[in-house]
Amino acid sequence: MSQFLDMFLIGISAASIYALMAISMVLVWRSTRVVNFAQAGMALLSAYIGYELVSRTGNFWISLPLAMILGAAFSAFIEFFLMRTLLKHSNQGPIAAIAPIIATLGLLGVIRAVIGFIWGHGDVQLEAPLSKVGYKFGDTTLFIGPMGLFVICFVVALLLVVTIVFQKTNIGLALRASAYAPEIAQLSGIRVSGIRTLGWAIAGAAGAAAGILQTVNGTGGLTPESLEFSLLLVFGFIAAVIGGLESLPGAVLGAVILGLVLAFVQIYISGTLVFIVAFILLLAVLILRPQGFLGSKAGRRA
Amino acid sequence: MSKDSLLSISNLTVKFGGLTALDDVFLNLESNQVVGLIGPNGAGKTTLFNAICGIVEPTSGKLTLNGKSHDWPATHELTSLGISRTLQGVGLFPDLTVAENVMIGAQKFAKTGLISAGFGRNKLDEEELRGRAQWALERVYSGSLADKRADALSYPDTKRVAIARALVSEPKILMLDEPAGGLGAQDIEWMNGLIRNLRSEMSILIVEHHMDVVMSVCDELYVLNFGEVIASGSAETVRRDPAVIAAYLGTGVA
Question: What Pfam families does UniProt report for this protein, alphabetically (chain A) (predicted)?
Answer without folding.
Answer: BPD_transp_2
